[in-house]
Amino acid sequence: MYLGLDLGTSGLRGLLTEGDGRVVGSAEASYPNPHPASGWSEQDPADWIRACQAVMAALSEAYPREVGALRGIGLSGHMHGATLLGSDDAVLRPCILWNDTRSANQASWLDARPGIRESSGNIVFPGFTAPKLLWVEEHEPDVFSKTAKVLLPKDYLRLWLTGDHISDMSDSAGTTWLDVGARDWSAQALETSHMRREQMPDLVEGSAPGGQLRAALCTEWGITGPVIVAGGGGDNAAAACGAGCFAEGTGFVSLGTSGVLLAARDSFAPAPETAVHSFCHAVPGRWYQMGVILAATDCLNWLSRSVGQSPEALAGALPGRISGPGALTFLPYLSGERTPHNDANMRGAFVGLDIGMGTDALTRAVMEGVAFALRDSLEALRRTGANLETVLAVGGGTRSRFWLETLASTLGLSLALPAGGEFGAALGAARLAICAESGADPDQVMTAPEISETIAPRADLTALYDEAYQSYRTLYPALRQAHK
Questions:
Q1: Contacts (Cβ under 8 Å, ≥6 apart) of 21
Q2: Do 250 and 190 fall within a single domain?
Q3: 311: domain range?
Q4: Percent of all residues in the chain with a pLDDT value above 90, rounded to a whole number
Q5: What family does the Swiss-Prot or TrEMBL record give for this protein (predicted)?
Q6: pLDDT mean over 141-162
Q7: What are the residue ranges of helices labelled H in 193-332?
Q8: What is the pLDDT of residues 284-341, one digit of tens each?
């Protein structure tokens, strides 16, 4: 038996599988995501441990025999978080998360230093880990001076599970400290950002062993042991493992809290000027690139709170088929933006509001605006040489047929919808555990899901959506000027 633990922004999910990947059961536990100041996003790492204990208690109660036979655990988690530990492994401050933009000035400074983009393969975004430590050095010098280790969120959970300071290549690629081509820490990047190698965890591939479950936890959870903990992966790399996205030309689009358009690559082909992320994959010798928008379903959640209707009610009020773009345009920069603008200070807007418009018009505009932002990511990916024709469509936003048709016709890509069952980051983490414990070939373990339906772009409407997208693109410069 194998377990995938996916540490998300709002909760932890555990997925129990057999050795052939068939799902046995799952459990979830949530935790808060405080925003103590504008642009700030933090979490207490102790909440992750409590969530893991709750998930394991639920799984042990529901599946005692299966949990007892556990042989491997894989970890997935939200990337870029800065978890600072003292010499005794005590947490020194709340973890600064991926969607925290306080270190925009530090990111700009670091991005301009010679050799940084060349080794990391990326622009230094405010959400990345390295600029956060520069912010801590400037604003919390006592904390900075006491920092003995910096761990990514899932790797702090690993520390509790195993007692080891270990990370994998895919998650570490989002710190700016990793030489993404060489798949090792960059001495130059560490020195430039005032860090030392001994403050970094040891590195393993995501499909390799990355520690062993502590004997005390084996006893507590009724596991005969031993249990290998795999290197695991950042959430998008793990999701790609769950969806079987490895070969050049394969990829997925995710309508989750954030929006992601990911393309698997057989080689390291960075193009940081596009603001596309170029990261190590969670298996050896593979990489991936992705465009990221900071708010996708989060935009619909924001509208839901603002008008007092659930996201499901808002989405359900729209028709099942699209008829062309609306007159109202939404720019989804509620928390700034990554691809292609790298602009932490940008904020969103509605353009073209009319007194006769209601919530349906607002909802439609939000969905179209997210689709236009993902089209920005597609254009950026194409400039790197990535070639996508059909992509898997995953995430909560895919429950809306209107949103899917809008996205397909805006991107000009067919969207393949996985059939029922698991295919996300938790399954990818479990698959990494299977490889780490058994030595199985990832290409044989991490197969693509069965497809239930493919949604093609509406040929009669693609020209209209392309025209609307071109108009959308002209709005950013004017809105950026207004926010200076």
A1: 427, 430, 431, 434, 445
A2: no
A3: 244-418+450-484
A4: 84
A5: Belongs to the FGGY kinase family.
A6: 98
A7: 215-221, 235-243, 297-307, 311-316
A8: 999 999 999 989 999 999 999 999 999 999 999 999 899 999 999 999 999 888 899 9
Does residue 235 have an active-site annotation? yes
For 440, the token pair is: 């199985």
Q: Is 357 labelled a binding residue?
A: no
The stretch 213-225 carries a mean pLDDT of 95
* DSSP states along 453-464: EEE---TTTHHH
End-to-end CA distance of the chain: 55
CB 400 within 8 A of CB 364: no
Is residue 367's pLDDT more than 80?
yes
pLDDT at 267 over 70: yes
Provide the pLDDT for residue 6. 97
Whole-number mean pLDDT of the chain? 95
Q: Would 437 be classed as within a structural domain? A: no
CA proximity to 469, closest of 414, 407, 415: 407
The one catalytic residue among 6, 168, 235, 343: 235
Q: What is the pLDDT of residue 390?
A: 87
- Is position 194 within any domain? yes
Which of 173, 196, 231 is the last residue in one of the domains?
Answer: 231
Q: What is the pLDDT of residue 484?
A: 64
Which helix H or strand E contains 146, and what residues bound it?
helix 141-146
Name the token pair of 282: 């969670």
Please count the structural domains in the chain: 2
Question: Cis link prior to 340 (omega < 30° from 0)?
Answer: yes
277 pairs with which residues across the strands? Answer: 290
Write out the two tokens for 474.
């002209």
Least confident of 183-197, 200-214, 246-260: 246-260
Residue 50 shares a structural domain with residue 194: yes
* Average pLDDT of the segment spanning 429-453: 94
198 and 271 housed in the same domain: no
Alpha-helical segments (H) within 384-424: 401-411
79 is in an annotated binding site: yes
Beta strands in 88-244 (DSSP E): 95-96, 149-151, 166-168, 178-179, 184-185, 202-204, 209-212, 228-230, 233-234
- The pLDDT of residue 25 is above 90: yes
For 61, 86, 213, 228, the CA distances from 438, given in Å and listed in that order, are: 26, 35, 16, 10
Cβ neighbors of 315 (< 8 A, separation 6 or more) are 300, 363, 367, 399, 400, 402, 403
CATH number at residue 274: 3.30.420.40
155: which residues sit within 8 A by CB, 6+ positions away?
Answer: 75, 77, 83, 165, 166, 167, 171, 201
Q: Which amino acid is at 404?
A: L
For position 421, what pLDDT does the model report? 67
Domain-embedded: residue 195? yes
